[in-house]
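Margin note: ligand = adenosine-5'-triphosphate.
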Amino acid sequence: MNTPILEMKNITKKFGSVTALNGVNLEVFPGEIRGLIGENGSGKSTISSIAAGMQKAISGQMLYEGNAWEPESMIDALNKGIGMVVQESGTITGITVAENIFLAEMKKFKKGLLVDRKRLYEDADRALSNIGITSISGRDMMDSLSFQERKLVEIAKVILKKPRILLIDETSTALSHDGRQIMYGIMKKMKEEGGSVIFISHDLEEIMEVCDTLTVLRDGNLIRTFAKEEFDENLIRTSMIGRELEGDYYRPDFNCSFLDEEAIVVKNLCFYDKLKNVSLTLHRGEILGIGGLADCGMHELGEAIFGALKPESGAVISPRGRHIKSPHNAMTDKIGYVSKDRDRKSLCLEASIKDNIAVAGMNIFKSGAGLITRSAERKYVDEQIDALRVKCSGRDQVVAQLSGGNKQKVVFGKWIGCGSEILILDCPTRGVDIGVKQAMYQLMSKLKSEGKAILMISEELPELIGMSDRVLIMKNGEITGEFKRSKDLSESDIIGCMI
Ligand SMILES: Nc1ncnc2c1ncn2[C@@H]1O[C@H](COP(=O)(O)OP(=O)(O)OP(=O)(O)O)[C@@H](O)[C@H]1O
Ligand SMILES: [Mg+2]
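Resulting structure:
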């Protein structure tokens, strides 16, 4: 029997009254790719970040290659062989890609009092090209990169240190097809070289495909570890949520149906190579899906419709005939927007759940005289927290302290609750567990039946097919295909227009 590369024994972690981990025992072996799955807030990020030196357990022991493992920090852990790609943003804006990659080692590039920038950029380019990325340069400012590119920089940064154990926290949903292939390639190589990977994802299909073993966490407890031959979707799901998932997952009907009334008309939008003459109409009572590869322009389309990105030409026209030119215009016309880049664009991390949700909902809980009462505000916020089962200690908890999926629920609640007539949802179910995904889909169906209009941008084909009345596919900034809802619509029908 070989010895584990990492042993975590009886690990307990609390945050105030919340028990994030309750005596968890986890052993990982050399050459193993271990999946970690569980509902939002079940403890996946916490256990991984303890192994990677980002935080400390309140009790329990760890052994790495048979020796006591007590990393002082994330950098210390990485230098000694355990690296982590974190769930949220693991890079810093305002500096270059190269400075991010070598953040803890800038000393290496000192030349007298100056920094040898040429060597810094060259080394960064090499670190990127080593993992197959040539489209990003060490000289690029971090701010100029997309969400996926920032994640790739983070991966390059960790891999550069040749870790023996790599922890990957919910990164797939930030990456497009190509980005994922890069990540899977890295995982495979680590395995071949006798290292180990701990891989967190909410995508059961993906995790069953890429992992050798799979551990389920629920409410801070390790429920069960499955060997590959024991993988069974239903069994894994049931152990995740502690009961069987009931009711429909996606919409049960296969009718493409919506009202004639137009909700948003987009006319000839142009934005560099991202949007080339894009026109579409979203109707009341319609769920219009927009799909494509991550860089096809669909995320920019969502931003432009909300007025958050100024197109070079073209127009977005609301039902009142108004041209949407700013988020303020959009909100006045009852348009809500969930951005894919949740931490930078959708949330104020240092503010409470209450403040984040209430910001958009003032019109709902304001009294007739226009006054805002504390109790009405609290009631409104609590309704949103309950509706989406946000796992938190209360409405006053700071959003930064929530688990990734629970942050996403706050964003969703902020826009769903406030009476938006039109919703632009960019990857709305990113990082949320299957139980909550189901609740979000049911909410979307309810909004549709109330005549609201939903534009859902998504990189997940099953979700687009499962929920949309029509699906528009984009490629290189253009709409390349339109598909009506039907029983027979399949992923392969659509993929042809994407690539
Ligand atoms: N800094 C913190 N302060 C307070 N509570 C925290 C903090 N970090 C995590 N928690 C809580 O600990 C629990 C476990 O959180 P964790 O982030 O590990 O969940 P997760 O399984 O990664 O969830 P997700 O799938 O949503 O990312 C949650 O209830 C969370 O709110
Ligand atoms: Mg997490």
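Residues 6-241 form a domain with the Rossmann fold fold (CATH 3.40.50.300).
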